[in-house]
Amino acid sequence: MANKAIMLGNEAIARGAYEAGVKVSAAYPGTPSTEISENIVKYKEIYAEWSPNEKVAMEVAIGASISGVRAMASMKHVGVNVAADPLYTIAYSGVNGGLVLVAADDPGMYSSQNEQDTRLIGRAAQVPVLEPSDSQEAKDFMKFAFELSEKYDTPIILRTTTRLSHSQGLVELCDRKEVEDKPYERNIQKYVMMPAMAQKRHIVVEKRNNALIEDSCSFPINKVEYNDLSVGFITSGIPYQYVKEAMPNASVLKLGMVNPLPKKLIEEFASKVDKLYIFEELEPVIEEQVKSWGIKAIGKEIFTVQGEYSANMLRKAVLNMDLNLDAAAEVPARPPILCPGCPHRSVYSVLNKLKIHAAGDIGCYTLGALAPLSVVDTTVCMGSSISTLHGMEKAKGKDYIKNWVAVIGDSTFMHTGVNSLMNMVYNKGTGTVIILDNSITGMTGHQDHAGTGKTLMGEPTNAISNYAFCKTIGIEHVYEVNAFDIKELEAVIKRETARDEISVIITKAPCVLLKGNVFPKKCKADPEKCKKCGMCLKVGCPALTKQADGTILIDETMCNGCGLCRQICKFDAIEEVDA
Q1: How many Å apart are CA 336 and CA 346, to the nearest integer?
Q2: Is residue 1 within 8 Å of 173, Cβ to Cβ?
């Protein structure tokens, strides 16, 4: 087969895994990595799963590798933090079947709480890092990564960024390579990382790194393009595309392997150009190493460590072209907002009315921090809401958190919230936890999880009950409430936040965008009855707007008929009509 297709970077990574003969893939959804697994599942030769979190996904892939097959785990950059424990140790153990971790960084923080650089984790963990610059390379580098993994007995990180993950390019499709399973041989010196074994394996890791530094100078993924020798660029990934666009005549050393660096190749390139720039997004990972070798180069003196790069940014920094790059700031901002009919809005409207603060978590419901709901006060990482509330209670006492709750989604609760809640029970905490159960992983595009009753491969499975789990770990006060029943919500929240015990409220209503979730009614405002009080606007539903005369208009094309505005209106000025 020798045909071509236009593919997203993530789609091309999935194709590379298929062509490389991968048999096991595990992941937790997180933008910008989610589509990798959603495309992998199309290849029936690969077992693919959504794991509860990234640590579990990494460990599943490690187990598959040790058993002798090619395996992979996929996650976004902050997910690598969760997976760091097994990642750092498997770097010592090494692999049997090839093992690749795909880590998707998010320069610009389009959907993330920080802008960390996975190349630094690769250095710290002593794991080789490859970085493709387009969809074709995403596929090719994936295949090459498995070859390197098995040749050098190491896990490999394939680092992508949002721009690569979500941009399209032409990809040549090849046949799948059926890789024979490697036999498993019991070897506790290699796979049991007790101190005595780990000390010996550390020596192996250092030898491996030295070999990679030497050998990578001739790897085909590291390419030198000599043109005008008066100026040269060392770059990698998507920034390479910007260099070629802005300065097509410059000489370029394009690094496909960004850890460890091919020292001799870099030294040779640097010696041939008059002026050397190092153009890399985020941290000066390449720059600091190159300068430490005594090579004179220009990097973060003129290039920012923040956000995404662009061809125009390069033109302005190097060529001093006035491109008015701040013009984008003049465009009116469009703040993110909860969808019309979102069940989180009704919960937050009650919390706002009761003047209750929320320790927040990672998900759509993080938007509860924004006006006009303005309920969420803290958001740190997945599963942190419950632990944050617990820490507040231990610091300030039970009375301090009587006007606080922790809010967490059903997928995030399965991810790491369960650990935090167990800690609360074990350490005799108090406080109210609200699990916002919308029956799906909403923020990343409706992926199933351990509570939905369906696997990534579409197979029915046991659905873990949040209610049963909470009761099982010893919480007496656990209540399920319809998320749109604001009277019941208010009564339950008032009662439970007043307790000196742990309580859990599970608000249940499916995501409004979930396939098959159809509201039979819509809401319509009656201008004759409207008192122009604006109470219905306080919930921040984008379907509601105030007219010039102060009356309310409900956009029927946006309204999903959840009825929240109708419940809030005290003058019966909003009625239900057939959709």
Answers
A1: 17
A2: yes
Question: Rounded CA gap, 253 and 324, in Å?
Answer: 29
Rounded Cα gap, residues 66 and 192, in angstroms: 12
Rounded CA-CA distance 187/191 in Å is: 6
Measured CA to CA, the distance from residue 355 to residue 404 in angstroms comes to: 9
Quote the mean pLDDT of the chain. Answer: 94
Q: What does the pLDDT read at residue 433?
A: 98
Please provide the distance, in angstroms rounded to a whole number, between the alpha carbons at the two ends of the chain: 50
* CB of 367 closer than 8 Å to CB of 337: yes
Provide the 8-state DSSP code for 443: T
Which residues have a Cβ under 8 Å from the Cβ of 456 and sit 6 or more positions away? Answer: 37, 41, 48, 49, 50, 447, 448
Closest C-alpha to 217, from 244, 252, 253: 253
Q: In this structure, are residues 314 and 247 in contact, taking their beta carbons and an 8 Å threshold?
A: yes
Q: Which of 212, 19, 9, 240 is nearest to 127 (CA)?
A: 212
Task: Name the percent of the chain lying above pLDDT 90.
Answer: 91
Q: In the block, which residue shows the tokens 């460990």?
A: 59
CA distances from 424 to 181, 434, 501, 503 (A): 45, 14, 10, 11
Contact 233, 266 (CB under 8 A): no
Q: Which residue has the tokens 């959804």?
A: 29
| pLDDT, average across residues 415-436 | 96
Q: What is the 3-state secondary structure (H, E, C) of 189-258?
A: HHHCCCHHHHHHHHHHHHHHHHHHHHHHHHCCCCEEECCEEEEEEEECHHHHHHHHHHCCCEEEEECCEE
**Spatial contact of 485 and 347, defined as CB atoms under 8 Å apart:** no
Cα angle value 543/547/550 (rounded, 5°) = 115
Separation of alpha carbons 575 and 579, rounded Å: 12
- pLDDT tens digit sequence for 541-579: 999 999 999 999 999 999 998 999 999 999 999 998 987
Angle, alpha carbons 327-330-336 (nearest 5°): 120
Is residue 45 over pLDDT 80? yes
| Alpha carbons 361 and 423: distance in angstroms, whole number | 17
Q: What's the rounded Cα separation, in Å, for the pair 281 and 291?
A: 17
Strand 544-546 and strand 552-554: the pairing is antiparallel
| Res 1 pLDDT > 70 | no
Token duo for residue 247: 């300065």
Give the residue from 260, 46, 215, 71 showing the smallest Cα distance to 149: 71
CA distance 257 to 59: 24
- DSSP conformational letter for 306: S
pLDDT tens for 81-91 read: 999 999 999 99
